[in-house]
Structure formats: C-alpha cells, structure tokens
C-alpha cells in the first residue's frame, strides 16, 4: 500500500525526507500507527519506475495520482492488464464516479473507491464507494483492511456524485456562504460557530445521534423540532452563485487571520495537524474500540 516514485528522482528523495520527518515526529509523540518503528516503516518504502514491478505481489493497490479522470483511467487500464483475480484495485478519488473511473475494465468486480480525508493520518475516515458491478467481497476485504490499519471505513451503499462527506461539506459551505453574503454574520464568526459550536459536538457524535441525545430519543426530537426545522429549511433559497464580491469579502477575512503566503499557510497547517493529532489521541482514549 506504499507510494511508488521513480528511483533517483528529486520527487522521490523529497517525499522520502518528508515521510521520515513525519514518521519520526509521530513516533516521538507516541502517535505512530502499527507495531513497526518509524525506521522499520521507512525501510518498506521504495521507488519504482515500472508499474508491473511496483505492484508485484500486491493484495491491495491504492491509486493516489492527481484528480484527473483521464490519468486515473490510464493507470487503471494498465493495472487491469497486469493483475490477477485476487487483487483489489482502489482509487483515492474524492469526487470521480466509480462507474466512469472503472468503465470497461475486465477486473471491474475488484474495483472500488476508498476515499480518505485530508490529512488521512489524523482524520481516519475512508469512504468506500462501489462500482455498480463491484463484488461484495471486494467491499468486505477493503473494509477489513482499512479497519486493520487504523482507519474508520464507511460503506457507501451506492455511488452518488460527491459521495457522502463532500455532499455534507458542500451543504455546510452553501449555507455558510449565504449567511455571510446576506450580512447575517462575519466570515470569522461563521467559522467560530463551527469550530466552537457544531464542530465540538461532531468531533465525537454525528448529526443523527445529536438529535437522539438532544431530546428523549430520536422520535421525541422529531416530534418536538421537525416543524421548526421544516420552516427554517424553506428559507435556505437556491444554491449560491459564489459571487466575486463575497469571494473578496471572505478572502480579506481569511487573509487577516492567516496570510496566504507559503510560510504562514504551512505554519497554520502544521498547527491544524498538531490539533488533529491530539484530538485523534483523545478519541482513541475515550471511545470504546
């Protein structure tokens, strides 16, 4: 399941250095997954310029090339000619439909989307999305593997544009945009509503369990609040057009908080990852396995 790059290239060398730095940091903070040390894990990462050699002996192939349908289809067409009937062919795509991605492949029953969430080492969710012809055994094997390596796989029962995570994320972004555009709340306060409000809840329980706990059970919640929810939802309006004026308004607010030069962005991402690492450790301590 490791990445493969051409031997001797600057890309491979740079990636290996980054992997070494991150694995060492995880080891020092007692957050390293698996039973192997950082050095032992690094010893298993190698570069290869031949795709057949790269996947030799593989049981699961996780494609991670850029989000380009033609490029991904080219990779899977090559893999389709190489693999036997036992290898799972999986894509990390965040939005490309499996029916388009795996169309025409001989081994389509072994194909599945396993969409991780960025950054995947700290955010364990993986969306498993089948092609209409994906075999149930492929879903089961991939689910079991993701659980084994410490991820949190969810079964998307049928393909849908945007899968589940991005559909929920885009719904939040859409309403957030309207609230800022209509002058209801500032961009920074909007983010605070999520980070210090909804996000606090959703770090441990989802929206449906939140409903269940916020009344005397789910049925009680629906009886009590469904009329109000229906009234508010009717005011949401159409999908925003993401006007330039609002883009500039949000950009200015975000730029004041985190300037968008490489240094400030990298520092903020590192802070985010540190927070996620601590949250992941807390969740592992609090939640039953």
From TrEMBL:
Q: Tell me what reaction this enzyme catalyses.
A: L-gulonate + NAD(+) = 3-dehydro-L-gulonate + NADH + H(+)
Q: Where is this site: Important for catalytic activity?
A: 115
EC annotation from Swiss-Prot or TrEMBL: 1.1.1.45
Which keywords appear in this protein's UniProt record, sorted alphabetically? Cytoplasm, NAD, Oxidoreductase, Phosphoprotein
| Record's keyword annotation contains NAD | yes
Instruction: Please give the Gene Ontology molecular function terms for this protein.
Output: L-gulonate 3-dehydrogenase activity; NAD+ binding
Every 3-hydroxyacyl-CoA dehydrogenase NAD binding domain range: 21-159
Identify the residues that the record assigns to the 3-hydroxyacyl-CoA dehydrogenase C-terminal domain, covering every copy. Answer: 162-250
One Gene Ontology cellular component annotation held by this UniProt entry: cytoplasm
Localization, per the record, is: Cytoplasm
A single Gene Ontology biological process assigned to it is: fatty acid metabolic process
Respond yes or no to whether keyword Transmembrane helix is given for this record: no
Domain of life assignment: Eukaryota
Please describe what this protein does.
Has high L-gulonate 3-dehydrogenase activity. It also exhibits low dehydrogenase activity toward L-3-hydroxybutyrate (HBA) and L-threonate.
Per the record, the similarity remark reads: Belongs to the 3-hydroxyacyl-CoA dehydrogenase family.
State the oligomer form and interacting partners: Homodimer.
* Name of the molecule in the record: Lambda-crystallin homolog
The scientific name of the source species is Spermophilus dauricus
